Amino acid sequence: MLLGASNLLIADGCKLVSMNGEKYSRQILFPPVGLDGQEKLLGSRVVIVGCGALGTAQANALVRAGVGSIRIIDRDFVEESNLQRQLLFDESDAAQSLPKSVAAERKLRAINSDVRVQGVVADVEGHNIEEMVNGFDLILDGTDNFATRYLINDVSIKLGIPWIYGAVVASYAATMTVVPGRSPCLACVFSKSPEGVHETCDTVGVIGPAVTWAASIQATEAMKILLGRFDELHGSLLACDIWKNHFQEIKPQINPDCRVCAAHEFVHLGARTSASTTLCGRDAVQISPAKSRNLNLQSLRERLEPLGEVRSNEYLLRFRVGQNDLTVFSDGRAIIKGTHDPATARSLYAKYVGS
Q1: What are the tens digits of pLDDT across the range 133-155?
Q2: Residues acting as catalytic residues
Q3: Exposure string over 158-171, b if 16+ CB within 10 A, otherwise e
């Protein structure tokens, strides 16, 4: 129920929450939003998969816009090298090695107390993604790999939830909006993951303006979807090299033979991703146990302290031994830095964490 620009009331379970409409007054003055649109935003639910450069920019924009409920899912922790482009983090987050989703939740709650923000420290996989996104109105892509994007694409089509693809590397950025039943899906455009050696942020770098270009378009498309203004979506695969001033717009078509949106073959859903995953050019491998282990991090710390340098907080433990840095999460998942060989990573995991 919306009473006016200076007195907003929305339903939150069985209680009504009063909010200061002045916070959104300039947005309400924009005709495509207005009072009714602001009410829709306050009642909307968005899930962001990945809380790096794109994810933090998306979350920042949508929380300030008053999107009522936002879930942020990320498997990683804040490092100093993130601060140049990941908008919600600062040096203290990196010093504490806070999980990105936890640090983001804290910042976003301080930005807008009207919005319900939930940070989830987890890896999105075939066996858990449906539970993580079910009931949300929109999925935003803040990931750094095609494997997870194909997973998002599958669950989007299966559950009928729109999602917005985004990618950034160096000064290049790209984005595409997928609305099930209305637009081509990712598999229509890329039937399989691009082959060959790919540039990554860790090999060719990345500049912040390329991130904000893509995230701004993603956030704008998100608002259009949440407001029901589907006819105003750009309907393209947009790409830009912001340094070289190259802009490209491709109008993809629905593939009538698409395995996902035509045949409804959701091959990525239901199964756990491989136990070891090399992380996007970072000289690091993630180890995911077959079942959540619910580790006692304090006990693990006491066991490892005689063997090397150990730091920990309530979310994770970091252990430095030789040239390797192990970051172990309470669910048993670990990121092993200093190697890109899964076999070496699994060996270090078994040696110091246990199989």
Answers
A1: 999 999 999 998 888 899 999 99
A2: 201
A3: eeebbbbbbbbbbb
Residues in the chain: 355
pLDDT bin (cut points 50, 70, 90) of residue 293 is confident
Residue 44: closest CA among 171, 138, 130, 155: 138
Which residues share a beta bridge with 257? none
Domain 44-250 matching CATH 3.40.50.720: the answer reads: yes
Find the helix or strand (DSSP H, E) in which 94 lies.
Answer: helix 91-96
pTM for the whole structure: 0.82
Helix (H, G, I), strand (E, B) or coil at 10: strand
Parallel, antiparallel or unpaired: strands 116-121 and 69-74: parallel
Identity at 88, one-letter amino acid code: L
- What residue ranges in the chain does DSSP mark as E strands? 2-4, 7-12, 15-19, 45-49, 69-74, 116-121, 138-141, 163-169, 172-178, 237-241, 246-250, 276-278, 284-287, 309-312, 316-321, 324-329, 334-337
- Which residues are bridge partners to 74 per DSSP? 121
Which architecture, in CATH terms, is 276-352? 2-Layer Sandwich (3.30)
Non-local (6+) Cβ contacts of 262 within 8 A are: 254, 255, 256
pLDDT digits (tens, 9 = 90+) for 31-90: 999 999 999 999 999 999 999 999 999 999 999 999 999 999 998 889 899 999 999 999
Domain assignments of the chain as residue spans, ordered by start: 44-250, 276-352
Per-residue pLDDT tens digits for 156-178: 999 999 999 999 999 999 999 99
Q: Using 50, 70 and 90 to split pLDDT, how confident is the model at 107?
A: very high
